[in-house]
TrEMBL record:
Keyword annotations: Hydrolase, Lipid degradation, Lipid metabolism
Gene3D superfamilies for this protein: Endonuclease Chain A
Record Pfam families: PLDc_2 (PF13091)
Keyword Magnesium recorded: no
Any one GO cellular component localisation term in the record: mitochondrion
Molecular-function annotations in GO: RNA endonuclease activity producing 5'-phosphomonoesters, hydrolytic mechanism
Keyword DNA-binding recorded: no
Annotated InterPro entries: PLD-like_dom, PLD_domain
Protein name stated in the entry: Mitochondrial cardiolipin hydrolase
Family: Belongs to the phospholipase D family. MitoPLD/Zucchini subfamily.
Length: 145
């Protein structure tokens, strides 16, 4: 958790999160702090998991963090985030964190999970292309109430 939070607290300009399920409050709080600092944040989440018990979605929406999903029979099962992947700032090293880890307390404390962190530019660029493809394809979440 400490290493994950270390990377999650590092963006200067942008954080793009593509996550099947987000319920962990420590990670959600880190995202909200970035938002307050002025970091551009975008989140893509699976539609079926968006409002599940404990989902961080409502907190993200409350802070006007853009979140997108697609209602589909297919799962949006990605689990990755991009840190400063959309900047030309030479002070920043673009990073992608990827693996099997959903951002849930169960996954962090009770499961065997894999997480890789890399600044290898070809990998970062491939994940950035995938995020941008989904961002265009998916729609903003609109409160139906």
């Amino acid at each position: 958790m400490d290493r994950l939070l270390h990377y999650l607290n590092s963006p200067r300009h942008s954080l793009d999160v593509c996550m099947y399920l987000m319920t962990n409050m420590d990670l959600t709080n880190a995202i909200l702090k970035l938002n307050i600092r002025g970091v551009k944040i975008r989140v893509i989440i699976d539609a079926d998991m968006a409002y599940c018990n404990g989902s961080a979605l409502k907190r993200l929406e409350k802070h006007r963090i853009p979140v997108r999903w697609m209602k589909s029979t297919n799962l949006m099962h990605h689990k990755f985030c991009l840190i400063d992947a959309g900047t030309d700032d030479v002070r920043c090293t673009p990073v992608v964190m990827l693996g099997s880890l959903n951002w849930t307390t169960q996954a962090l404390n009770g499961n065997w999970e894999a997480v890789a962190v890399t600044s290898q530019i070809k990998l970062v660029e491939q994940y950035k292309i995938e995020f941008e493809r989904l961002w265009v394809q998916f729609k903003p979440i609109v409160d139906s109430v």
